[in-house]
Each structure stands twice: as structure tokens, then as C-alpha cells.
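Protein in question kept underneath.
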Amino acid sequence: MSTTGMMHYLPEVEESAIERKLTELQAVHPELGICALLPEAQKDKVGVLQSVCSRCNVPLAGAIFPALVRDGNFLTSGVWLLCFRQMPHFALYDNLPTGSAEAELAAEKIANDIRAQIDHVPDMTLFMLFDAMVPNIGTLLDNIYLHLANRVHYAGANAGSETFQPMPCLFDRDRLVEKGVLVLLLTRHKGAILEHGYHTNPHTSYATSTSGNCISQIDWRPAFEVYQELVREHYGEEVTAENFYQYGVHFPFGIVRANHHVVVRIPVMLTDDGSLFCVGEVPPNSVLTLLKAPTVRTVETLHNLTEGLKKLNGDVSGSELLLFYCAGRRLHLGMQMATTELEAFAGLTHASQVAGALSLGEIGGSTVQGYPLFHNATLVASRW
């Protein structure tokens, strides 16, 4: 692969191959920096990346995901080296607090660190990679926005294991951490476009008892009991404790916001008391609607995504694009349809290459003033 592009996929995560590539790139870009994306199957290779980058004196930040995205394929081997001509400001925060007061302080610190780096460059994106096991990402985003508002665009994704078991998944040149966030401040960057293509069911309910990403009650009744009734009434399927893991991903919740924007929440765990754990927070008294996977409008989603990229960046033909694709979306659409979406995206955009990962939640601006929202079941794309 030539050194003219800034996205480089290496099929083997080996010291010699990485060092050779970094040496090539440093010859062109002496102040080279790297954001590395590793698949979960290669998680034991973080040390290799750290060692080589230390030896070559190349700044490193990165994350581990269930799989990588390369053009029209999902890959479970290799590594993406997403390159910067000069490493932007980045910071790795671990063990983020979950208590509301402590979370406010953590968000304030992150925002203050970013604010200290903001100059008069008109387009800057706060790019965030969270550990998917952080249960209060939405709250942290809200608090960060209170301090930074529209001085930056917001984009990002969740890293970690598709099993939703705790795993250190964020790293820099010295550390590998969990329950944290990696932030990078991208300059001369116009942000990302995020789409899911779901259309709402007119029936709504209320999440009357929640804690973080756990829904205990819907309409003052046990959450799973109401969930079973909604799936039966609207879609004619019987969901039981035994088949929940088979069905849950096909019938996610949508949180209906005041502007009618729908934020998808996929239930991934069921507790003995009938509570539902979702990927991402569900605020108390959220208005919920039940969604169904077959109603995803793939053509509409890809059209909106592609047109959104063009509105932000102009013609993206021949560009290198970054894409995060939700693991939950792949589960409920199936591998074949998800791969078809990847192929269609690459074809519609005429990108020189598409790099990214299978993610466990996505971050993008809403349609109102770029307010950052945490989503499930989406595609989030940007120019690199």
C-alpha cells in the first residue's frame, strides 16, 4: 500500500510489519501520530503496537472492537493504522465514575482539558471512543456539552467485547485501560453523519423506573412483562426468558425525544426480577416506542448518510472515510444484509477506502444544534 493515504490496514499485527510501515510513513510525515483499531481476536497484540510505537517515537492512541470494517467487509484479524500528519491533542481517562456528582466533575475535567486546546480553527471535532461497559455515557455527553456547547462537533463509538463482558479496550503508548474514554480533538474536521433508518411505532410507553442502562419498570409494571406484551401485541411474537437473547436484538426500544428524533436502545440482558439492561442509558420517564428490525430502511439510511457526508464535506469521491457500524444492527439484520450495507456504502460514496470497526454504540450530533447523542443500531461516518 502506498504512503499517500492516511488509512493503512495491516493483515498481520507483527512487529516487523508495523515498524516497516511506520518508518515509511515517518519519512513522509516526520510528526506522524497513530490511532489504531484492533479486533477483539487480536487484543493480545496491544503490547506489540505499544512497543513498536515507543521504539519509533510515534504517539499512539487506540481501541479494541468486536471486528474491523474494511470497505465492504467485517474482519477479525489485522489492524487499522489511522494516521495523522501531526498527532492532535488526545487524552485517555480510565475508571470513569458513575455517581452523578462525580460524573459531573469528570465531564468538567474532560471539557476543560479540551477547552484549553481550542483555538480559532473553525471546524473541530471531539472524537470519543468509550468503553461500552461505561453505564452513563449519555449523562457524560450531556455534561460535556454543557461546558463546550457548539464549539466542537461530536462523534465517536463504543469499544469492547461483543459479549458485553468487561475487558480493557482503550490504550495509548503506555496504558491499556477499561471503563474509560479516549478523546481526540480533530482539527479542520466537520464532524460525522449518523443514521439508523428506523421509523417509529405510534404506540408509546413510559420508562417509569430506570437506573443508568437498566429499565426496571415500564408504565409502573415489571419491564420484561410489558416488553413481552408489546412484542406480542404489535408483532405477534412470543418472547420468553429462554429466547430473549434470540429475540431482544430484533425488537429494540426507541427513545422518542422532544424533536421526534428516535434514539435506539437495544436490550441485551434480562435479570431475574424482570429488569432489562440496554446498550446505553435510558433516562427516567423516557417515552419509549417498540421498534422492529425488518422496518429498517437500508436504502433510505445509506442515502441519508451519503448525502449528509456530501453536505458536510462536498464531493467525497476518492476520499478516505471512517465508518463505525453497530454490532446490534449486524445481529438483527444478519451478516449478509449488514455486509451488503457496507458494500453499498462504499459504492455510493466512491470512497478510495472505508476504514472503521464494528461498534457497541455510536455517538453523533442530533438534528438540533449538533447536540451529542448516544445511539445504538446506527452507522456513523465521517471523512478522515
